[in-house]
Structures are given as structure tokens and as C-alpha cells.
Amino acid sequence: MNRIEKIMEFLSQQPQDNFLRHALALEYIKIGEDVKARDLFIEILSQSPDYIGSYYHLAKVLEKLEQRQEAIDWYEKGMSACKLAKDDHAYRELQGAYEDLVY
Predict the structure, then answer these.
(1) Which residues are CB-contacts of 18 (< 8 A; sequence separation ≥ 6)?
(2) What is the pLDDT of residue 1?
(3) Residues 6+ apart with CB under 8 A from 21
(4) Domain that holds residue 55
(5) Which of 13, 25, 32, 78 could be disulfide-bonded to 94 (CB atoms 3.0-4.6 Å)?
(6) Are 64 and 101 in contact (CB under 8 A)?
(7) Is 51 helix (H, G, I), strand (E, B) or coil?
(8) Could you give the angle at the alpha carbon of 35 between the alpha carbons of 29 and 39, nearest 5°?
(9) Average pLDDT, stretch 36-51?
């Protein structure tokens, strides 16, 4: 059984587990299924805007899909979420990627 199949099996038992859904989205990126990854990251963040780790990966996928403005929007949402969570490390990572894209 490959990694995606294993994660899907776990998700069948815990369908709202953000760690598993995030891991699945990362696996989709590895195999070039960027649209599936994007959709899954958006689903995670729509339901759990405090799941900080998904903002960076979502915005990077959007950049890859040449959806620049959407990437900018998600970087900004992520930075706001980081401020609320007082997660300075994640904020700096998002800010750096945001600045690389915008400037």
C-alpha cells in the first residue's frame, strides 16, 4: 500500500483530522496533483483557519498553478492567523515567501 492509500485509510476513520488531510495534500503535491492539493488545503483552512502550517503550502501551490493573486491573498490570511496564534516563526516564513512573490 502506498502512502496515499495509507493516509486515505486513516482518513476513513478520522475524516476531519487536519494532520492527515495536510499530509495527504503534501503527497498530492509530490505526484503532481496540485489542484487536488490546493482544494484540500482550502478545505482545511476554511474549516480550521488556525491550522497555520497549511497556509504556506497552499500559497506555494497557488504560485505553481500561476494563481498569483490568490497566493498573495492566502499569504496575507496566513500572516494574520500567525499574529492571532502568536506564531512568530511561521509568520516570518510566510512573510518571506510573500515578499519574494510581491517584490
Answers:
(1) 44, 48, 51, 54
(2) 67
(3) 11, 40, 43, 44
(4) 3-102
(5) 78
(6) no
(7) coil
(8) 100
(9) 98
Specify the CATH number for the domain of residue 89: 1.25.40.10
Residues 71-97 pLDDT 10s: 999 999 999 999 999 999 999 999 999
Which residue do the cell numbers 476531519 mark? 16
Q: What is the mean pLDDT of residues 17-42?
A: 98
What's the rounded Cα separation, in Å, for the pair 15 and 91?
Answer: 28
Q: pLDDT-based confidence at 52, cuts 50/70/90? A: very high
Write down the residue that cell numbers 515578499 correspond to.
Answer: 99
List the one residue out of 35, 19, 18, 96 whose CA is nearest residue 70.
35
Predicted model pTM: 0.95
Share of the chain residues as helix, strand and coil, in percent rounded to the nearest 5 = 80, 0, 20
- What is the count of structural domains for the chain? 1
